[in-house]
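[step 3/7] fold_predict: job queued, chain A
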Amino acid sequence: MATISLTVNGKAVTATVEDRTLLVQYLRENLGLTGTHVGCDTSQCGACVILVDGRAVKACTMLAAQADGSTVTTIEGLATGDQLHPVQAAFREHHGLQCGFCTPGMIMAAVDMINRRGGALDEQTIRHELEGNICRCTGYHNIVKAIQAASAEMAGMRQAAE
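[step 4/7] structure written:
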């Protein structure tokens, strides 16, 4: 058993977990954060993507104990109150979802992509960066449009802040 302390969506949490507990299991089963989905259990689909210390991580590939001391953001922690994050708003506006199962992982991967790359992103870059996220419904067209819109908006927000 391991005792872990981390910050999840802005809240400090401490727990004792079995050494083999995956981070995705801890988030879903212990904290009730079910927006992080389990799709494949093999790190292929990207439905479990979250941010750990600001970087995209597939939560099915990380033990909860490995996150000790980290800051974790899940889809539930992305919005500020009733104000959607720009990526969430863009997915809604550009219908970047269909069944919605992959959407939380796609959004979290997109946030990481935009934060790392900055500026407006082109279609080729977005499609390359999404290679680890599978959507079985949409064909990615509207997902790409949503990420392009969000990246342009976030680039404009950065410029206005400077």
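[step 5/7] annotate
The mean pLDDT is 94.
Residues 141-161 form the longest helix (21 residues).
exit 0
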